TrEMBL record:
Keywords: Membrane, Transmembrane, Transmembrane helix. The keyword Transmembrane helix applies. This is DUF3592 domain-containing protein. Residues 205-227 are annotated as: Disordered. It comes from the Bacteria. The chain crosses the membrane at residues 131-154.
Length: 227
């Protein structure tokens, strides 16, 4: 029972958690690799599109701007049709304008992958993206479940299992004692009396096999007959 509990309720959840954390680490490694190898260049905003207003729990509202940006890579022009340009709280949120010059960080291995950045470029350890956060939460939930099962649930089941084992080991002896008392109750009175009588019979047999050496069991009925 304990082995099955550890295997299914602890190790299984730990495996699911490790899988989710592994995928999250893989995705974040890709993000950091892009940030480290990205190259900064300048681009021109050709079109600006405003997203819907997002209302938060604290009552504030937020809006984001995306647009089409044209930038040059190794003498060739590249167009990003949906680049995030800005995101800020309403109503103080200056919108980017068409024709505005912005800094763009692009991937030298994939020119179409680009984001807006500052002149200093992207940090080597960027803030994880939404996919990484979702995978991290998916890994955290089964990890908490495994810890709860191991720290709180398993000790209770282990104690209950040991108690059940102790009862099962002691139960046959108790039943056997009750059976002996029931069968030999009229003769010996209890199982202890039966045991004493059995010891006396063994001593009597030992004395007779010794060739009359005078060894007699206590309360030997043969002694009274010979007298």
């Amino acid at each position: 029972m304990i082995g099955e509990f550890i295997r299914w309720q602890v190790l299984t959840w730990l495996g699911v958690s490790a899988l989710a954390f592994g995928v999250a680490a893989f995705v974040y490694a890709g993000e950091t690799a892009f940030a480290r190898r990205s190259i900064v260049t300048s681009g021109t905003v050709e079109e600006v599109r405003r997203s819907g207003v997002l209302y938060t729990d604290d009552g504030s509202s937020r809006v984001e701007y995306h647009g089409r940006v044209r930038y040059t890579v190794r003498g060739a022009e590249v167009v990003s049709n949906r680049m995030r340009l800005a995101g800020c709280d309403v109503p103080v949120c200056p919108a980017p304008k068409e024709g505005q010059i912005v800094h763009v960080a692009y991937d030298p291995e994939n020119f179409n992958r680009a984001v807006r950045t500052s002149a200093a470029g992207l940090p080597h350890w960027p803030v994880p993206g939404p996919v990484v956060w979702i995978l991290g939460l998916m890994g955290l939930v089964p990890l908490i479940g495994a810890v709860v099962n191991l720290v709180w649930i398993w000790p209770v089941l282990r104690t209950r299992s040991w108690f059940t084992l102790a009862v099962s080991l002691r139960q046959p002896a108790a039943e056997g004692r009750e059976a002996v008392d029931e069968v030999f109750g009229d003769v010996a009175g209890s199982a202890d009396a039966v045991r004493d009588a059995a010891v006396g019979l063994l001593l009597a047999e030992g004395g007779s096999s010794a060739g009359g050496s005078g060894v007699r069991a206590p309360n030997d009925p043969c002694r009274s007959r010979r007298r």
